[in-house]
Amino acid sequence: MSEKNELKLDVTFWDTCWKNNITMWDLKVVSPPIKSYVDTLQDKAVAILIPGCGNAYEAQYLLENGFKNVTIIDISPTLAVQLLQKLENYIGKELTVICGNFFTHTGQYDVIIEQTFFCALDPKMRKDYTEKMHQLLKPTGKLVGLMFNKIFSGGPPFGGSQEEYFELFSTKFDILKMENCENSIKPRAGTELFIELTPKI
What we know:
The protein is of the alpha/beta class. The protein is 29% helix and 24% strand. The longest helix is centred in the middle third of the chain and has 11 residues, at 126-136.
């Protein structure tokens, strides 16, 4: 990746995207594979984190379905203000909204949901990502969500392959699932993997 791209992937870059509605990654709805996974969760009190949450459709779905301990984090101040307004009825009760850097966040979670956060990071940070996810998850926790099984030219987004992800995550996680996603949205059909990982002790 070029130095030019590296310099862009900071608070200013992402905040500019949100200020100017440059959000081509936005599905406008909760991602179907994540919705299906959420529907299997029976304990509404589990602590859930969504990093790089974007417009937080997944968080909204969780809250509307009675989940009581949801935290979302994003680096963009502009987006944070929008989310505080959009989800104001849940703030301070079932929902915590954090504007900040995921890599300095602290906490312990039962579930962390991955949805277009990993692919937005500089690929050089992927090892840091695995270490931070391992740190934030409870011993019985799970990292679940979607990865692009596709190579992109330039980025973000930055893609990859199932083989690459298996090698990356297997150092810190037991891989319960890493398989082709059968219920992706149409534009992403055949290009997503659904992951379900649990931290190695």
